[in-house]
Design a protein that fits this description.
Blueprint (H helix, E strand, L loop, with lengths): L9 H12 L10 E4 L3 H15 L14 E4 L1 H10 L2 H7 L5 H14 L3
Parallel strand pairs: 1-2
Length: 113
């Protein structure tokens, strides 16, 4: 399932993510996918998750957070599109730049007037 949370500050994003991650998945070995736009934000988020999820108490912040896949938004988009491999093999990814260019050329040629 894809959960999208929008907030004005980073701290407002950590609380809903933490509460979502507290509920275990059906498969305990399946990683959680998390998207963040920069490497620095990914690292900060990993530290915050370790501080809140894996710590022995809220005061110590001595936790460990593992089995997360941190990706940039475009990499997450590609992974979601490639999840349906059969459909992708038949049609290709229409949002890849090389595919998108030809689709735009086709539309421009069809509507020259």
């Amino acid at each position: 399932m894809l959960n999208l949370v929008v907030a004005e500050s980073l701290l407002d994003l950590v609380e809903p993510l933490t509460s979502e991650l507290l509920h275990p998945q059906d498969d305990p070995f399946a990683p959680e996918w998390i998207s963040a736009p920069t490497v620095a934000m990914q690292r900060w988020l990993q530290l915050e998750l370790a501080r809140t999820l894996g710590s022995s108490s809220a005061r110590t912040g001595d936790g460990v957070a593992a089995n997360f896949i941190m990706k940039f938004p475009n990499a997450l988009r590609q992974a979601v599109l490639l999840a349906d491999a059969v459909k992708q093999e038949e049609t290709g990814d229409p949002w890849r730049i090389d595919s998108l260019v030809w689709a735009i050329f086709w539309v421009l040629d069809k509507h020259q007037d």
